[in-house]
Fold this protein.
Amino acid sequence: MINLTVGLHVFANGTRVKILAMLSAGRLRVEEISTGAIFNITPGEVEFELPSPDMAVANQRLHTIDSAGRFSECPESIGSVAVERFQLIAGLLDRGALVKDIIKELKKMPGMSPSLAYRTFNRFSREQGPLCLVDLPRGRKLGSRSISATHEELIDRAINESYRGIAANQAAIIQKVHELCLVAQLKPPASKTIVRRIKARNPKELLSKKQGSKIAKQKYEVRGGKLLTSAPLELVQIDHGLVDCIIVDAESRAPLCRPWVTLAVDVHTRVVLGLNITLCYPSGMSVALCMSHMILPKHRWLKKIGMDGCEYPFYGIPKRIHVDNAKEFRSPILGAGCAIYGIKLTWRPPGTPHNGAHIERLIGTFMGKVHFLPGTTMSSIVQKGDYKPDKHAALTFVEFREWFVREVEIYHKSTHSELECPPLYKWEEAFKLSDGSVSNPLIVADSLKLLLDFMPLTRRVVSRSGIKMNNVEYYSPALKNFNNGTPCVVRYDPLSLRHIWVRPANTDHYIELSYSDMSLPDISIEEMKFLRKKLQERSNKRISQTEVLELKKTNKTLVAAAESKTRRVRAMVERTKLRRDKSHPLHDKAPRDTQAEKPRIDYSLKPVPFKVEE
Protein backbone atom coordinates (compact mmCIF):
# COMPACT_ATOMS: atom_id res chain seq x y z
CA MET A 1 0.00 0.00 0.00
CA ILE A 2 1.31 3.48 -0.95
CA ASN A 3 -0.03 6.52 0.88
CA LEU A 4 0.48 9.42 -1.58
CA THR A 5 1.48 12.48 0.48
CA VAL A 6 3.46 15.65 -0.18
CA GLY A 7 7.20 15.02 0.17
CA LEU A 8 6.94 11.29 -0.60
CA HIS A 9 9.64 9.85 -2.90
CA VAL A 10 8.26 7.45 -5.48
CA PHE A 11 9.29 5.75 -8.73
CA ALA A 12 7.11 6.79 -11.68
CA ASN A 13 7.58 6.69 -15.48
CA GLY A 14 11.00 5.09 -15.09
CA THR A 15 12.50 7.81 -12.87
CA ARG A 16 12.74 8.87 -9.22
CA VAL A 17 10.43 11.77 -8.30
CA LYS A 18 9.30 13.67 -5.22
CA ILE A 19 5.64 14.67 -4.76
CA LEU A 20 5.36 18.46 -4.44
CA ALA A 21 1.59 19.00 -4.44
CA MET A 22 -1.78 17.28 -4.90
CA LEU A 23 -3.40 19.22 -7.77
CA SER A 24 -6.54 17.05 -7.91
CA ALA A 25 -7.73 13.50 -7.35
CA GLY A 26 -6.04 12.42 -10.57
CA ARG A 27 -3.06 14.81 -10.89
CA LEU A 28 0.15 15.15 -8.89
CA ARG A 29 2.87 17.80 -9.17
CA VAL A 30 6.28 16.08 -8.86
CA GLU A 31 9.97 16.95 -9.12
CA GLU A 32 12.51 14.66 -10.78
CA ILE A 33 15.25 14.05 -8.20
CA SER A 34 18.17 13.73 -10.63
CA THR A 35 17.45 16.79 -12.82
CA GLY A 36 15.12 18.93 -10.75
CA ALA A 37 12.52 19.07 -13.55
CA ILE A 38 8.93 19.66 -12.42
CA PHE A 39 5.95 18.07 -14.20
CA ASN A 40 2.56 16.43 -13.56
CA ILE A 41 1.71 12.73 -13.30
CA THR A 42 -1.36 10.63 -12.47
CA PRO A 43 -1.55 8.27 -9.45
CA GLY A 44 -1.68 5.29 -11.81
CA GLU A 45 1.86 6.07 -13.04
CA VAL A 46 3.32 5.54 -9.55
CA GLU A 47 5.06 2.14 -9.45
CA PHE A 48 6.49 1.90 -5.93
CA GLU A 49 7.61 3.99 -2.96
CA LEU A 50 11.24 5.01 -2.45
CA PRO A 51 12.93 5.59 0.91
CA SER A 52 13.10 9.31 1.74
CA PRO A 53 16.54 10.71 2.79
CA ASP A 54 15.01 12.37 5.84
CA MET A 55 13.27 9.14 6.85
CA ALA A 56 16.53 7.25 6.50
CA VAL A 57 18.22 9.54 9.01
CA ALA A 58 15.32 9.41 11.41
CA ASN A 59 14.74 5.66 11.33
CA GLN A 60 18.08 4.02 10.64
CA ARG A 61 21.77 4.70 10.67
CA LEU A 62 23.41 5.73 7.44
CA HIS A 63 26.24 3.79 5.89
CA THR A 64 29.44 4.96 4.33
CA ILE A 65 31.24 3.37 1.42
CA ASP A 66 34.94 2.74 1.81
CA SER A 67 37.49 2.32 -0.97
CA ALA A 68 36.91 -1.45 -1.11
CA GLY A 69 33.23 -0.93 -1.88
CA ARG A 70 31.91 -2.29 1.44
CA PHE A 71 29.42 -0.62 3.79
CA SER A 72 30.38 0.25 7.35
CA GLU A 73 28.05 1.80 9.89
CA CYS A 74 28.66 5.37 10.99
CA PRO A 75 27.32 7.25 14.04
CA GLU A 76 24.05 9.12 13.72
CA SER A 77 25.80 12.43 14.49
CA ILE A 78 27.93 12.11 11.35
CA GLY A 79 24.85 11.14 9.37
CA SER A 80 22.95 14.20 10.59
CA VAL A 81 25.81 16.48 9.47
CA ALA A 82 25.69 14.90 6.02
CA VAL A 83 21.91 15.43 5.85
CA GLU A 84 22.31 19.09 6.87
CA ARG A 85 24.89 19.69 4.14
CA PHE A 86 22.77 17.85 1.57
CA GLN A 87 19.66 19.90 2.36
CA LEU A 88 21.64 23.17 2.17
CA ILE A 89 23.10 22.40 -1.26
CA ALA A 90 19.80 21.03 -2.61
CA GLY A 91 17.87 24.06 -1.40
CA LEU A 92 20.31 26.49 -2.95
CA LEU A 93 20.28 24.62 -6.26
CA ASP A 94 16.48 24.64 -6.28
CA ARG A 95 16.53 28.44 -5.93
CA GLY A 96 19.03 28.72 -8.80
CA ALA A 97 22.03 29.82 -6.69
CA LEU A 98 25.45 30.06 -8.29
CA VAL A 99 28.29 27.73 -7.36
CA LYS A 100 30.26 30.51 -5.64
CA ASP A 101 27.23 31.37 -3.49
CA ILE A 102 26.83 27.72 -2.52
CA ILE A 103 30.51 27.47 -1.57
CA LYS A 104 30.18 30.67 0.46
CA GLU A 105 27.25 29.23 2.43
CA LEU A 106 29.05 25.95 2.98
CA LYS A 107 32.05 27.74 4.48
CA LYS A 108 29.76 29.15 7.17
CA MET A 109 29.00 25.64 8.48
CA PRO A 110 30.99 24.40 11.51
CA GLY A 111 34.29 22.66 10.65
CA MET A 112 34.04 23.53 6.97
CA SER A 113 37.26 24.71 5.32
CA PRO A 114 37.38 26.17 1.78
CA SER A 115 38.89 22.97 0.32
CA LEU A 116 36.35 20.80 2.16
CA ALA A 117 33.54 23.03 0.88
CA TYR A 118 34.61 22.45 -2.73
CA ARG A 119 35.01 18.70 -2.14
CA THR A 120 31.56 18.54 -0.52
CA PHE A 121 29.94 20.31 -3.47
CA ASN A 122 31.68 18.06 -5.99
CA ARG A 123 30.49 14.92 -4.14
CA PHE A 124 26.85 16.08 -4.10
CA SER A 125 24.42 13.70 -5.85
CA ARG A 126 20.63 13.78 -5.65
CA GLU A 127 20.37 10.07 -6.54
CA GLN A 128 22.61 8.92 -3.67
CA GLY A 129 21.14 11.36 -1.20
CA PRO A 130 22.99 12.41 2.01
CA LEU A 131 25.06 9.22 1.73
CA CYS A 132 27.34 10.92 -0.80
CA LEU A 133 28.35 13.61 1.72
CA VAL A 134 29.35 11.36 4.62
CA ASP A 135 33.04 11.91 5.36
CA LEU A 136 35.14 8.77 4.93
CA PRO A 137 37.11 7.74 8.02
CA ARG A 138 40.79 8.60 8.11
CA GLY A 139 43.62 6.10 8.16
CA ARG A 140 44.18 2.94 6.18
CA LYS A 141 41.10 1.84 4.33
CA LEU A 142 39.41 -1.43 5.16
CA GLY A 143 40.66 -4.16 2.86
CA SER A 144 43.85 -2.39 1.85
CA ARG A 145 47.00 -4.53 1.66
CA SER A 146 50.49 -3.57 2.77
CA ILE A 147 52.60 -6.68 2.11
CA SER A 148 54.63 -7.05 -1.08
CA ALA A 149 53.30 -8.46 -4.31
CA THR A 150 55.69 -11.43 -3.94
CA HIS A 151 54.16 -12.35 -0.59
CA GLU A 152 50.67 -12.03 -2.07
CA GLU A 153 51.66 -14.33 -4.91
CA LEU A 154 53.06 -16.95 -2.51
CA ILE A 155 49.91 -16.87 -0.37
CA ASP A 156 47.71 -17.30 -3.46
CA ARG A 157 49.90 -20.16 -4.64
CA ALA A 158 49.68 -21.89 -1.25
CA ILE A 159 45.88 -21.60 -1.19
CA ASN A 160 45.51 -22.87 -4.76
CA GLU A 161 47.84 -25.82 -4.25
CA SER A 162 47.25 -26.91 -0.64
CA TYR A 163 43.64 -26.01 0.14
CA ARG A 164 42.23 -29.26 -1.25
CA GLY A 165 40.51 -32.25 0.25
CA ILE A 166 38.39 -32.77 3.32
CA ALA A 167 41.36 -32.17 5.65
CA ALA A 168 42.15 -28.70 4.26
CA ASN A 169 42.46 -26.06 7.00
CA GLN A 170 44.08 -22.71 7.76
CA ALA A 171 47.01 -24.24 9.66
CA ALA A 172 48.08 -26.23 6.59
CA ILE A 173 48.03 -23.07 4.45
CA ILE A 174 50.09 -21.12 7.01
CA GLN A 175 52.67 -23.93 7.08
CA LYS A 176 52.77 -24.01 3.28
CA VAL A 177 53.31 -20.22 3.07
CA HIS A 178 56.17 -20.46 5.57
CA GLU A 179 57.79 -23.20 3.48
CA LEU A 180 57.48 -21.17 0.27
CA CYS A 181 58.90 -18.04 1.95
CA LEU A 182 61.82 -20.09 3.29
CA VAL A 183 62.64 -21.30 -0.22
CA ALA A 184 62.33 -17.74 -1.58
CA GLN A 185 64.43 -16.40 1.32
CA LEU A 186 61.67 -14.04 2.43
CA LYS A 187 60.32 -13.26 5.84
CA PRO A 188 56.91 -14.96 6.16
CA PRO A 189 53.87 -12.75 6.77
CA ALA A 190 51.93 -12.91 10.00
CA SER A 191 49.52 -15.81 10.47
CA LYS A 192 46.60 -13.36 10.84
CA THR A 193 47.46 -11.89 7.43
CA ILE A 194 47.38 -15.33 5.83
CA VAL A 195 44.06 -16.13 7.53
CA ARG A 196 42.57 -12.86 6.25
CA ARG A 197 43.63 -13.77 2.71
CA ILE A 198 41.93 -17.16 3.06
CA LYS A 199 38.73 -15.56 4.35
CA ALA A 200 38.84 -13.02 1.52
CA ARG A 201 38.42 -15.85 -0.99
CA ASN A 202 35.00 -16.79 -2.31
CA PRO A 203 33.54 -19.20 0.29
CA LYS A 204 31.91 -21.21 -2.49
CA GLU A 205 35.31 -21.68 -4.14
CA LEU A 206 36.92 -22.79 -0.87
CA LEU A 207 34.14 -25.27 -0.08
CA SER A 208 34.35 -26.62 -3.63
CA LYS A 209 38.08 -27.29 -3.15
CA LYS A 210 37.44 -28.93 0.21
CA GLN A 211 34.27 -30.99 -0.27
CA GLY A 212 33.52 -30.81 -3.99
CA SER A 213 31.52 -28.63 -6.34
CA LYS A 214 28.26 -30.49 -5.67
CA ILE A 215 28.22 -29.61 -1.96
CA ALA A 216 29.39 -26.06 -2.72
CA LYS A 217 26.55 -25.54 -5.19
CA GLN A 218 24.09 -27.02 -2.74
CA LYS A 219 25.09 -24.49 -0.07
CA TYR A 220 25.81 -21.29 -1.97
CA GLU A 221 24.18 -21.43 -5.41
CA VAL A 222 21.15 -19.20 -5.94
CA ARG A 223 18.39 -21.19 -7.60
CA GLY A 224 15.69 -18.96 -8.90
CA GLY A 225 12.54 -20.03 -10.64
CA LYS A 226 9.81 -22.45 -9.70
CA LEU A 227 7.81 -25.06 -11.58
CA LEU A 228 4.24 -23.76 -11.71
CA THR A 229 1.37 -26.02 -12.75
CA SER A 230 -2.34 -25.34 -12.91
CA ALA A 231 -3.80 -28.85 -13.08
CA PRO A 232 -2.93 -32.52 -12.48
CA LEU A 233 -1.02 -34.45 -15.16
CA GLU A 234 0.57 -31.26 -16.53
CA LEU A 235 4.01 -32.28 -15.30
CA VAL A 236 5.27 -35.62 -13.96
CA GLN A 237 8.79 -36.31 -12.70
CA ILE A 238 10.24 -39.86 -12.80
CA ASP A 239 13.38 -41.24 -11.17
CA HIS A 240 14.90 -44.40 -9.65
CA GLY A 241 16.11 -45.04 -6.13
CA LEU A 242 18.04 -47.87 -4.50
CA VAL A 243 16.08 -48.87 -1.40
CA ASP A 244 18.05 -48.58 1.85
CA CYS A 245 16.98 -52.03 3.04
CA ILE A 246 18.04 -55.63 2.41
CA ILE A 247 15.30 -58.18 1.70
CA VAL A 248 15.45 -61.94 2.27
CA ASP A 249 14.70 -65.06 0.26
CA ALA A 250 11.11 -66.29 0.61
CA GLU A 251 12.15 -69.93 1.31
CA SER A 252 15.43 -69.89 3.22
CA ARG A 253 15.03 -66.38 4.69
CA ALA A 254 18.67 -65.74 3.77
CA PRO A 255 19.60 -62.11 2.93
CA LEU A 256 19.37 -61.32 -0.78
CA CYS A 257 19.90 -57.75 -1.94
CA ARG A 258 18.51 -54.21 -1.96
CA PRO A 259 15.55 -53.68 -4.32
CA TRP A 260 15.16 -50.76 -6.71
CA VAL A 261 12.10 -48.53 -6.86
CA THR A 262 10.99 -46.31 -9.76
CA LEU A 263 8.57 -43.54 -8.79
CA ALA A 264 6.52 -41.02 -10.79
CA VAL A 265 5.20 -37.94 -8.95
CA ASP A 266 2.57 -35.51 -10.22
CA VAL A 267 4.03 -32.07 -9.47
CA HIS A 268 0.69 -30.30 -9.08
CA THR A 269 -0.90 -32.67 -6.55
CA ARG A 270 2.25 -34.47 -5.29
CA VAL A 271 0.56 -37.86 -5.67
CA VAL A 272 2.63 -40.94 -6.52
CA LEU A 273 1.14 -41.44 -9.97
CA GLY A 274 3.09 -44.63 -10.70
CA LEU A 275 5.66 -46.96 -9.17
CA ASN A 276 7.65 -50.10 -9.94
CA ILE A 277 9.63 -52.21 -7.48
CA THR A 278 12.15 -54.70 -8.82
CA LEU A 279 15.31 -56.58 -7.88
CA CYS A 280 16.97 -55.66 -11.17
CA TYR A 281 19.08 -52.63 -11.97
CA PRO A 282 17.06 -49.80 -13.58
CA SER A 283 16.52 -50.37 -17.29
CA GLY A 284 14.16 -49.59 -20.11
CA MET A 285 11.84 -52.30 -18.78
CA SER A 286 11.67 -50.57 -15.39
CA VAL A 287 10.62 -47.36 -17.13
CA ALA A 288 8.05 -49.22 -19.27
CA LEU A 289 6.47 -50.84 -16.20
CA CYS A 290 6.37 -47.51 -14.37
CA MET A 291 4.82 -45.75 -17.38
CA SER A 292 2.16 -48.47 -17.68
CA HIS A 293 1.46 -48.35 -13.94
CA MET A 294 1.23 -44.55 -14.07
CA ILE A 295 -1.21 -44.33 -16.98
CA LEU A 296 -3.53 -47.23 -16.11
CA PRO A 297 -6.03 -47.49 -13.21
CA LYS A 298 -4.59 -49.45 -10.28
CA HIS A 299 -7.49 -51.69 -9.17
CA ARG A 300 -6.46 -54.75 -11.24
CA TRP A 301 -2.85 -54.45 -10.14
CA LEU A 302 -3.87 -54.11 -6.47
CA LYS A 303 -6.04 -57.20 -6.78
CA LYS A 304 -3.17 -59.22 -8.27
CA ILE A 305 -0.83 -58.37 -5.38
CA GLY A 306 -3.55 -59.05 -2.80
CA MET A 307 -4.17 -55.41 -1.77
CA ASP A 308 -7.55 -54.73 -3.37
CA GLY A 309 -8.61 -52.85 -0.21
CA CYS A 310 -5.98 -50.14 -0.79
CA GLU A 311 -7.20 -46.74 -2.04
CA TYR A 312 -5.12 -45.77 -5.09
CA PRO A 313 -7.34 -43.76 -7.49
CA PHE A 314 -4.61 -41.94 -9.43
CA TYR A 315 -3.99 -42.57 -13.14
CA GLY A 316 -3.88 -40.77 -16.47
CA ILE A 317 -1.74 -39.75 -19.45
CA PRO A 318 0.56 -36.85 -18.46
CA LYS A 319 1.17 -33.91 -20.76
CA ARG A 320 4.87 -33.68 -19.93
CA ILE A 321 7.43 -35.95 -18.28
CA HIS A 322 10.60 -34.55 -16.71
CA VAL A 323 13.51 -36.99 -16.17
CA ASP A 324 17.27 -37.00 -15.68
CA ASN A 325 19.89 -38.03 -18.25
CA ALA A 326 20.14 -41.74 -17.45
CA LYS A 327 20.56 -44.10 -20.40
CA GLU A 328 17.06 -45.57 -20.08
CA PHE A 329 15.53 -42.06 -20.13
CA ARG A 330 17.57 -40.99 -23.17
CA SER A 331 16.48 -44.10 -25.08
CA PRO A 332 14.72 -43.46 -28.41
CA ILE A 333 12.26 -46.21 -27.39
CA LEU A 334 10.93 -44.04 -24.55
CA GLY A 335 10.75 -41.03 -26.87
CA ALA A 336 8.80 -43.02 -29.48
CA GLY A 337 6.40 -44.36 -26.85
CA CYS A 338 5.76 -40.87 -25.49
CA ALA A 339 5.10 -39.60 -29.03
CA ILE A 340 2.43 -42.29 -29.54
CA TYR A 341 0.45 -41.02 -26.54
CA GLY A 342 1.13 -37.30 -27.00
CA ILE A 343 3.52 -36.97 -24.04
CA LYS A 344 6.26 -34.34 -24.15
CA LEU A 345 9.57 -35.73 -22.85
CA THR A 346 12.04 -33.26 -21.28
CA TRP A 347 15.36 -33.76 -19.48
CA ARG A 348 17.17 -31.96 -16.68
CA PRO A 349 20.38 -30.10 -17.47
CA PRO A 350 23.31 -32.40 -16.57
CA GLY A 351 24.56 -32.10 -13.00
CA THR A 352 21.51 -30.26 -11.67
CA PRO A 353 19.57 -32.63 -9.40
CA HIS A 354 17.71 -29.66 -7.88
CA ASN A 355 15.80 -29.36 -11.18
CA GLY A 356 14.10 -32.60 -10.18
CA ALA A 357 13.55 -31.52 -6.60
CA HIS A 358 10.01 -32.91 -6.30
CA ILE A 359 10.91 -36.51 -7.17
CA GLU A 360 14.22 -36.32 -5.28
CA ARG A 361 12.42 -35.16 -2.16
CA LEU A 362 9.73 -37.83 -2.55
CA ILE A 363 12.32 -40.61 -2.78
CA GLY A 364 14.08 -39.12 0.26
CA THR A 365 10.78 -39.12 2.17
CA PHE A 366 10.19 -42.81 1.57
CA MET A 367 13.82 -43.72 2.29
CA GLY A 368 13.41 -42.00 5.65
CA LYS A 369 10.52 -44.41 6.39
CA VAL A 370 12.61 -47.36 5.16
CA HIS A 371 15.25 -46.57 7.78
CA PHE A 372 12.89 -47.88 10.46
CA LEU A 373 12.67 -51.35 8.85
CA PRO A 374 14.74 -54.34 9.97
CA GLY A 375 17.70 -54.80 7.66
CA THR A 376 18.03 -51.13 6.75
CA THR A 377 21.39 -49.99 5.43
CA MET A 378 20.68 -46.33 6.31
CA SER A 379 21.92 -43.57 3.98
CA SER A 380 25.63 -43.85 4.76
CA ILE A 381 28.20 -45.92 6.60
CA VAL A 382 28.40 -43.26 9.30
CA GLN A 383 24.65 -43.47 9.97
CA LYS A 384 24.69 -47.26 9.89
CA GLY A 385 27.45 -47.53 12.48
CA ASP A 386 27.78 -51.04 13.92
CA TYR A 387 24.33 -52.13 12.74
CA LYS A 388 24.41 -55.38 10.69
CA PRO A 389 21.71 -55.22 7.96
CA ASP A 390 22.28 -58.80 6.79
CA LYS A 391 21.79 -60.11 10.31
CA HIS A 392 18.53 -58.23 10.94
CA ALA A 393 16.96 -58.46 7.44
CA ALA A 394 13.47 -59.95 7.73
CA LEU A 395 11.17 -58.85 4.86
CA THR A 396 10.74 -60.81 1.63
CA PHE A 397 10.19 -59.03 -1.66
CA VAL A 398 6.41 -59.56 -1.52
CA GLU A 399 6.26 -58.34 2.08
CA PHE A 400 8.36 -55.28 1.32
CA ARG A 401 6.21 -54.43 -1.70
CA GLU A 402 3.06 -54.64 0.42
CA TRP A 403 4.64 -52.44 3.10
CA PHE A 404 5.78 -49.90 0.52
CA VAL A 405 2.37 -49.63 -1.20
CA ARG A 406 0.72 -49.13 2.18
CA GLU A 407 3.22 -46.37 3.03
CA VAL A 408 2.33 -44.72 -0.28
CA GLU A 409 -1.34 -44.79 0.78
CA ILE A 410 -0.42 -43.24 4.14
CA TYR A 411 1.54 -40.52 2.32
CA HIS A 412 -1.47 -39.73 0.11
CA LYS A 413 -3.71 -39.30 3.15
CA SER A 414 -1.25 -37.20 5.21
CA THR A 415 -0.97 -33.41 5.09
CA HIS A 416 1.76 -32.27 2.70
CA SER A 417 3.90 -29.40 4.04
CA GLU A 418 3.90 -27.59 0.69
CA LEU A 419 0.24 -28.16 -0.21
CA GLU A 420 -1.05 -27.75 3.37
CA CYS A 421 -3.48 -30.59 2.61
CA PRO A 422 -3.25 -34.31 1.76
CA PRO A 423 -2.29 -35.11 -1.87
CA LEU A 424 -5.44 -37.27 -2.16
CA TYR A 425 -7.64 -34.27 -1.32
CA LYS A 426 -5.71 -32.06 -3.77
CA TRP A 427 -6.25 -34.62 -6.55
CA GLU A 428 -9.97 -34.98 -5.88
CA GLU A 429 -10.52 -31.22 -5.70
CA ALA A 430 -8.70 -30.73 -9.01
CA PHE A 431 -11.20 -33.02 -10.81
CA LYS A 432 -14.33 -31.44 -9.34
CA LEU A 433 -16.38 -29.39 -11.80
CA SER A 434 -18.23 -26.17 -11.09
CA ASP A 435 -21.59 -27.96 -10.91
CA GLY A 436 -20.31 -30.32 -8.20
CA SER A 437 -19.80 -33.32 -10.47
CA VAL A 438 -16.45 -35.10 -10.84
CA SER A 439 -14.49 -35.68 -14.04
CA ASN A 440 -11.97 -38.45 -14.65
CA PRO A 441 -8.82 -38.76 -16.76
CA LEU A 442 -8.95 -40.65 -20.05
CA ILE A 443 -8.45 -44.42 -19.83
CA VAL A 444 -6.29 -46.39 -22.27
CA ALA A 445 -8.36 -49.41 -23.35
CA ASP A 446 -5.55 -51.71 -24.57
CA SER A 447 -3.35 -52.09 -21.49
CA LEU A 448 -1.08 -54.70 -23.11
CA LYS A 449 -0.34 -52.51 -26.12
CA LEU A 450 0.40 -49.61 -23.76
CA LEU A 451 3.07 -51.64 -21.98
CA LEU A 452 4.49 -53.04 -25.21
CA ASP A 453 4.81 -49.55 -26.73
CA PHE A 454 7.36 -48.67 -24.03
CA MET A 455 9.20 -52.03 -23.87
CA PRO A 456 12.61 -52.65 -25.50
CA LEU A 457 12.44 -53.49 -29.20
CA THR A 458 14.46 -54.93 -32.01
CA ARG A 459 13.73 -55.61 -35.67
CA ARG A 460 13.56 -59.00 -37.39
CA VAL A 461 12.01 -60.60 -40.49
CA VAL A 462 9.68 -63.58 -40.68
CA SER A 463 11.53 -66.73 -41.78
CA ARG A 464 10.28 -70.21 -42.63
CA SER A 465 10.77 -71.28 -39.02
CA GLY A 466 9.27 -68.12 -37.48
CA ILE A 467 11.26 -65.35 -35.77
CA LYS A 468 14.84 -65.86 -34.64
CA MET A 469 16.23 -63.67 -31.85
CA ASN A 470 19.31 -64.29 -29.69
CA ASN A 471 19.81 -67.57 -31.62
CA VAL A 472 16.45 -68.78 -30.28
CA GLU A 473 13.51 -69.50 -32.59
CA TYR A 474 9.98 -68.29 -31.76
CA TYR A 475 6.78 -69.34 -33.47
CA SER A 476 3.01 -68.86 -33.49
CA PRO A 477 0.45 -70.17 -35.99
CA ALA A 478 -0.60 -66.54 -36.57
CA LEU A 479 2.64 -66.03 -38.54
CA LYS A 480 1.18 -68.15 -41.36
CA ASN A 481 -0.81 -65.10 -42.42
CA PHE A 482 2.43 -63.34 -43.40
CA ASN A 483 4.95 -64.04 -46.12
CA ASN A 484 8.51 -65.17 -45.61
CA GLY A 485 10.71 -62.06 -45.32
CA THR A 486 8.04 -59.75 -43.83
CA PRO A 487 9.80 -57.15 -41.62
CA CYS A 488 8.60 -56.98 -38.01
CA VAL A 489 9.03 -54.91 -34.86
CA VAL A 490 9.81 -57.26 -31.96
CA ARG A 491 9.09 -56.24 -28.36
CA TYR A 492 10.59 -58.30 -25.56
CA ASP A 493 11.04 -58.40 -21.81
CA PRO A 494 14.76 -58.53 -20.92
CA LEU A 495 13.87 -60.39 -17.72
CA SER A 496 11.94 -63.17 -19.47
CA LEU A 497 12.69 -64.35 -23.00
CA ARG A 498 10.07 -67.15 -23.06
CA HIS A 499 7.68 -64.88 -24.99
CA ILE A 500 8.13 -62.06 -27.46
CA TRP A 501 5.58 -59.82 -29.17
CA VAL A 502 5.80 -59.15 -32.89
CA ARG A 503 4.13 -56.40 -34.91
CA PRO A 504 4.49 -57.15 -38.63
CA ALA A 505 4.77 -54.29 -41.10
CA ASN A 506 1.55 -52.48 -42.06
CA THR A 507 -0.30 -53.77 -38.97
CA ASP A 508 -1.16 -52.07 -35.68
CA HIS A 509 -1.50 -55.10 -33.40
CA TYR A 510 1.02 -57.38 -31.71
CA ILE A 511 1.25 -61.17 -31.99
CA GLU A 512 2.55 -63.15 -29.01
CA LEU A 513 5.20 -65.76 -29.89
CA SER A 514 6.65 -68.51 -27.70
CA TYR A 515 9.70 -70.75 -27.90
CA SER A 516 9.54 -73.12 -30.88
CA ASP A 517 11.21 -75.64 -28.57
CA MET A 518 8.96 -75.64 -25.50
CA SER A 519 11.54 -77.60 -23.49
CA LEU A 520 13.81 -74.55 -23.29
CA PRO A 521 13.84 -72.85 -19.87
CA ASP A 522 12.68 -69.29 -19.27
CA ILE A 523 15.75 -67.08 -19.01
CA SER A 524 16.66 -63.39 -18.87
CA ILE A 525 18.85 -61.69 -21.42
CA GLU A 526 21.51 -61.08 -18.75
CA GLU A 527 21.53 -64.78 -17.84
CA MET A 528 21.86 -65.66 -21.52
CA LYS A 529 24.83 -63.33 -21.94
CA PHE A 530 26.40 -64.75 -18.78
CA LEU A 531 25.97 -68.36 -19.91
CA ARG A 532 27.36 -67.58 -23.36
CA LYS A 533 30.38 -65.97 -21.76
CA LYS A 534 30.89 -69.00 -19.50
CA LEU A 535 30.55 -71.37 -22.47
CA GLN A 536 33.10 -69.39 -24.41
CA GLU A 537 35.50 -69.42 -21.46
CA ARG A 538 35.04 -73.19 -21.06
CA SER A 539 35.65 -73.84 -24.75
CA ASN A 540 38.71 -71.59 -24.72
CA LYS A 541 40.00 -73.52 -21.72
CA ARG A 542 39.58 -76.89 -23.53
CA ILE A 543 40.94 -75.60 -26.83
CA SER A 544 43.06 -72.52 -26.41
CA GLN A 545 42.98 -69.72 -28.90
CA THR A 546 46.71 -70.23 -29.47
CA GLU A 547 46.09 -73.79 -30.57
CA VAL A 548 43.43 -72.66 -33.03
CA LEU A 549 45.77 -70.05 -34.44
CA GLU A 550 48.53 -72.64 -34.87
CA LEU A 551 46.17 -74.93 -36.79
CA LYS A 552 45.13 -72.05 -39.01
CA LYS A 553 48.79 -71.25 -39.59
CA THR A 554 49.54 -74.90 -40.55
CA ASN A 555 46.62 -74.94 -42.98
CA LYS A 556 47.79 -71.71 -44.53
CA THR A 557 51.29 -73.16 -45.00
CA LEU A 558 49.82 -76.33 -46.49
CA VAL A 559 47.81 -74.43 -49.09
CA ALA A 560 50.80 -72.29 -50.01
CA ALA A 561 53.02 -75.38 -50.41
CA ALA A 562 50.37 -77.15 -52.48
CA GLU A 563 50.13 -74.21 -54.81
CA SER A 564 53.90 -74.23 -55.36
CA LYS A 565 54.11 -78.01 -55.79
CA THR A 566 51.08 -78.62 -57.92
CA ARG A 567 53.12 -79.42 -61.05
CA ARG A 568 55.48 -81.74 -59.14
CA VAL A 569 52.54 -83.58 -57.60
CA ARG A 570 51.00 -84.15 -61.01
CA ALA A 571 54.35 -85.47 -62.25
CA MET A 572 54.60 -87.92 -59.33
CA VAL A 573 51.09 -89.23 -60.03
CA GLU A 574 51.95 -89.66 -63.65
CA ARG A 575 55.14 -91.55 -62.81
CA THR A 576 53.16 -93.91 -60.61
CA LYS A 577 50.85 -94.65 -63.49
CA LEU A 578 53.80 -95.33 -65.71
CA ARG A 579 55.20 -97.83 -63.24
CA ARG A 580 52.03 -99.90 -63.70
CA ASP A 581 52.27 -99.67 -67.50
CA LYS A 582 52.76 -103.06 -69.18
CA SER A 583 55.35 -101.56 -71.46
CA HIS A 584 57.59 -100.96 -68.48
CA PRO A 585 60.55 -103.32 -68.46
CA LEU A 586 59.65 -104.67 -65.04
CA HIS A 587 56.30 -105.74 -66.41
CA ASP A 588 57.76 -107.66 -69.39
CA LYS A 589 56.62 -111.42 -69.20
CA ALA A 590 59.25 -112.69 -71.68
CA PRO A 591 61.65 -115.49 -70.35
CA ARG A 592 64.87 -114.18 -68.94
CA ASP A 593 66.85 -117.39 -69.58
CA THR A 594 66.70 -120.57 -71.63
CA GLN A 595 65.02 -122.62 -68.95
CA ALA A 596 61.26 -122.67 -68.87
CA GLU A 597 59.74 -120.55 -66.17
CA LYS A 598 57.90 -122.39 -63.43
CA PRO A 599 54.13 -122.01 -63.51
CA ARG A 600 52.74 -119.62 -60.94
CA ILE A 601 49.73 -120.32 -58.70
CA ASP A 602 46.82 -117.98 -59.06
CA TYR A 603 45.35 -117.75 -55.60
CA SER A 604 42.42 -115.70 -56.82
CA LEU A 605 40.82 -118.76 -58.40
CA LYS A 606 38.51 -121.09 -56.52
CA PRO A 607 40.30 -124.30 -55.60
CA VAL A 608 39.18 -127.53 -57.36
CA PRO A 609 39.04 -130.65 -55.19
CA PHE A 610 40.89 -133.76 -56.20
CA LYS A 611 38.96 -136.66 -57.56
CA VAL A 612 38.92 -139.49 -55.08
CA GLU A 613 39.02 -143.02 -56.38
CA GLU A 614 36.25 -145.29 -55.23
